[in-house]
Amino acid sequence: MNLLSIGASYRTADVAVLERLAISESAVPDLLQRLVAQPYVGEAVVVSTCNRVEVYAAVSGFHGGLGDICNVLSEHSGIPATELAGHLYVHYGEAAVRHSFRVSSGLDSMVVGEAQILGQLRDAYHAATEVDSAGRLLHELMQQALRVGKRAHAETGIDRAGQSVVTAALDVAAEHFGGDLTGRSALVIGAGAMGALSVATLTRAGVGPLRITNRSHDRADRLAEAYGAIAVGFEQLDAVLGEVDIVVTATASTEPVLTRDRLAKALAVKELVVLDLAVPRDVAPDAAELPGMVVVDIDSLAAGRRTQPAVAETAAVEQIVASEVDGFLGWLRGAEIAPTVAALRTRAEEVMSTEMRKLISRRPDFTEEQRADVSRTLHRVVQQLLHSPTVRVRQLAAEPGGDQYAALLRELFDLDVPLATQADAVPEIGGKP
């Protein structure tokens, strides 16, 4: 099995495409099951956020795995595979490992250094664990990616320039209000992870009064209580829209929450800045150009990114990623030789057993105790002869170019070790940036 990551993000697709690709939390288990049911896909983890949809997979062949995953994403989104291909980036083998570590470190985020992706990766990993779609390879990759992300934030200042997409959106809102949001009234629609992050960020920015609404009123109540905000019923949305300066909307709705009619009524009272951080978008497409309203969404943020960490901080994280990729590849090479070492030990045991049977047939006069003594002695000799070579070959296999040692063992001892097909592997896959 080899690692393959396929995805679309704000770098390769606009919001319209990401909306169609977006996978709701409730739909993730079914999609994971569909992925691992494909002929070339053995393991799968799906990450779906406001600005990326990615599949990490363990596949038995590059082209077969690529085709299987693209077909599943095409069926899910309704986008023809030929059209979808133009929006996807692909990373294979070492490049897939590097990409996962860069994602977890925030280097691939719209706001470089944001830490929210760590929680999103953790949720994706847990979802895969619950449906048993992550095997040994993806368990190790996800655990190491989460550790690398934590290390990047702990050892560098990568997260100082911008904590999340929310802060970038609020920067745009602040510009509209002359650079200061203090005392501006706001409404947050949605009490999920992005909504909670929005409430925390707005509170730190001095925004107030701050209202929160959600279809589940209990969640809005709990979030409001935690930040000293005001929870309002979802049925009061129309009235509240006409009372606030800023609206941050981040729901999981598949249909627009802020329709043209709803926003037009609010705009008849006052101007409005709407930060639409949802994918699919919460603001109806035909409402975006209403007079008196400023809409900031994922597309506009991607087009005008301005919060970037210092070059030195980014370089420091890139160095961490590079060293961690080397470490993971060393583990991977060591894991790949394990079947060969196991096959060698099995072959030795088979030879010992065969010779023991021949000895017993020649010496029927041996007692059971004598036979047991001879068997134990042969076993110890075999184990001692194999111990140093197998320990050393594991060490050598963990080094660059180590795969040659496994191949040499198989050749020398004529070992039959089932291997994942490499016939359609490609030597270098970097994918789109």
TrEMBL record:
<keyword id="KW-0560">Oxidoreductase</keyword>
<dbReference type="Pfam" id="PF01488">
    <property type="entry name" value="Shikimate_DH"/>
</dbReference>
<feature type="site" description="Important for activity">
    <location>
        <position position="99"/>
    </location>
</feature>
<dbReference type="InterPro" id="IPR000343">
    <property type="entry name" value="4pyrrol_synth_GluRdtase"/>
</dbReference>
<feature type="binding site">
    <location>
        <position position="120"/>
    </location>
    <ligand>
        <name>substrate</name>
    </ligand>
</feature>
<comment type="subunit">
    <text>Homodimer.</text>
</comment>
<dbReference type="GO" id="GO:0008883">
    <property type="term" value="F:glutamyl-tRNA reductase activity"/>
</dbReference>
<feature type="binding site">
    <location>
        <begin position="49"/>
        <end position="52"/>
    </location>
    <ligand>
        <name>substrate</name>
    </ligand>
</feature>
<keyword id="KW-0627">Porphyrin biosynthesis</keyword>
<dbReference type="Pfam" id="PF05201">
    <property type="entry name" value="GlutR_N"/>
</dbReference>
<keyword id="KW-0521">NADP</keyword>
<feature type="domain" description="Tetrapyrrole biosynthesis glutamyl-tRNA reductase dimerisation">
    <location>
        <begin position="317"/>
        <end position="415"/>
    </location>
</feature>
<comment type="pathway">
    <text>Porphyrin-containing compound metabolism; protoporphyrin-IX biosynthesis; 5-aminolevulinate from L-glutamyl-tRNA(Glu): step 1/2.</text>
</comment>
<feature type="binding site">
    <location>
        <begin position="114"/>
        <end position="116"/>
    </location>
    <ligand>
        <name>substrate</name>
    </ligand>
</feature>
<dbReference type="Pfam" id="PF00745">
    <property type="entry name" value="GlutR_dimer"/>
</dbReference>
<dbReference type="InterPro" id="IPR015896">
    <property type="entry name" value="4pyrrol_synth_GluRdtase_dimer"/>
</dbReference>
<dbReference type="InterPro" id="IPR036291">
    <property type="entry name" value="NAD(P)-bd_dom_sf"/>
</dbReference>
<feature type="binding site">
    <location>
        <begin position="190"/>
        <end position="195"/>
    </location>
    <ligand>
        <name>NADP(+)</name>
    </ligand>
</feature>
<feature type="active site" description="Nucleophile">
    <location>
        <position position="50"/>
    </location>
</feature>
<feature type="binding site">
    <location>
        <position position="109"/>
    </location>
    <ligand>
        <name>substrate</name>
    </ligand>
</feature>
<dbReference type="InterPro" id="IPR036453">
    <property type="entry name" value="GluRdtase_dimer_dom_sf"/>
</dbReference>
<protein>
    <recommendedName>
        <fullName>Glutamyl-tRNA reductase</fullName>
        <ecNumber>1.2.1.70</ecNumber>
    </recommendedName>
</protein>
<comment type="function">
    <text>Catalyzes the NADPH-dependent reduction of glutamyl-tRNA(Glu) to glutamate 1-semialdehyde (GSA).</text>
</comment>
<dbReference type="InterPro" id="IPR015895">
    <property type="entry name" value="4pyrrol_synth_GluRdtase_N"/>
</dbReference>
<dbReference type="InterPro" id="IPR006151">
    <property type="entry name" value="Shikm_DH/Glu-tRNA_Rdtase"/>
</dbReference>
<dbReference type="InterPro" id="IPR036343">
    <property type="entry name" value="GluRdtase_N_sf"/>
</dbReference>
<feature type="domain" description="Glutamyl-tRNA reductase N-terminal">
    <location>
        <begin position="6"/>
        <end position="156"/>
    </location>
</feature>
<feature type="domain" description="Quinate/shikimate 5-dehydrogenase/glutamyl-tRNA reductase">
    <location>
        <begin position="173"/>
        <end position="302"/>
    </location>
</feature>
<comment type="similarity">
    <text>Belongs to the glutamyl-tRNA reductase family.</text>
</comment>
